[in-house]
Amino acid sequence: ELSISAVSVAEGGTETFTLWLTAEPQSPVSVMIASSDPAALSVTPTDLTFDATTWNMPMTVTVEGLEDPDGLDDNVVLTFSSLIATTRFIPATVVDDDIQALIVDPTTIQVTEGGTGTFDVSLTVMPPRSLSVNAVPLGSAVTVDSSTLTFSSGNWNVPQTVTVTGVHDQDLADGSDIIEMRSAETPTVSVSVAIL
Fold it and tell me: What is the mean pLDDT of the chain?
């Protein structure tokens, strides 16, 4: 018998439940416990033994949610099997703890009028689907060569470069502008640009 019908655990966290037999066995009985995805959910111990003195004593099983690079929950099945009982299957969910965000480096650059500067953009977490990031200058003092960057599960951690060009103007004063890196799935990150 199990103390649960399903289990949910956060990445990096643990949960426990108990297991016991409903009838006294004639000889020692081993119950094997397996995770369908050991890379996402580990189980300790992986087998329990019950005998005539311990059959109705709850024994503790610990599951641990393991960290992964994506931003998705993992669905796992725990299997409980023995030679004297019907195999049981319990659904388990590993709740992802990763928060999607932009990595922008650097966030402050300098360019001359007509000159260029660059910064790189990547993601903190593998996205479950294609993710677009828009480079939006807030003023008219600079332009960007790539107004939209696209990240996927294959390139999420590969920096993509944005080239910024300073626009010629009629005055002799230095200028400034802000470029916002915007995505519907991440907080906005601002890049400050000084135009010399």
Answer: 93
Give me 100's structure tokens. Answer: 């999607």
Query: What is the spatial distance between Cα 167 and Cα 141, in angstroms, rounded to a whole number?
Result: 5
How far apart are the C-alpha atoms of 121 and 67, rounded to whole Å? Answer: 23
- pLDDT of residue 159 exceeding 90: yes
Closest CA to 153 of 132, 130, 134, 183: 130
Q: SS3 for 94? A: strand
Best CA proximity match to 18, nearest among 60, 54, 47: 60
> Which of 145, 150, 154 has the alpha carbon at shortest distance from 185?
150
pLDDT tens track for 113-129: 999 999 999 999 988 88
The pLDDT value given to residue 85 = 83
CB atoms within 10 A of CB 95: 12
What are residue 15's DSSP bridge partners? Answer: 63
